[in-house]
User: What shape does this take?
Amino acid sequence: MRLNDDAKAMLRDAGVSQAEWARASFPGAGRWFGDACGCIDDRCIGYHHDEADSCGCLPSLLEDYRGGVGMFAPVNAQITG
Ligand SMILES: [Zn+2]
Ligand SMILES: [Zn+2]
Assistant: This one.
């Protein structure tokens, strides 16, 4: 699975590299297991939103990541802790 152009643009706007996003979402996995839209759910497109629509999950996931909350809090806590 590769990230689509929308996801790449959103990550770029957030200042997060694709490699960093894969690491943050799937620690230790070494690759991206989410959907092409950037959501960590690999069935996001077609379930959370249509393929033609931009992903609503990625912006809020990125916000959580940058804020160190939600699913990203324990990971960040370990790194900084
Ligand atoms: Zn999603
Ligand atoms: Zn999505």
Notes: The chain has a mean pLDDT of 90. The chain has one domain: 5-80. DSSP finds four helices and no strands in the chain. The two ends are 32 Å apart (CA to CA).
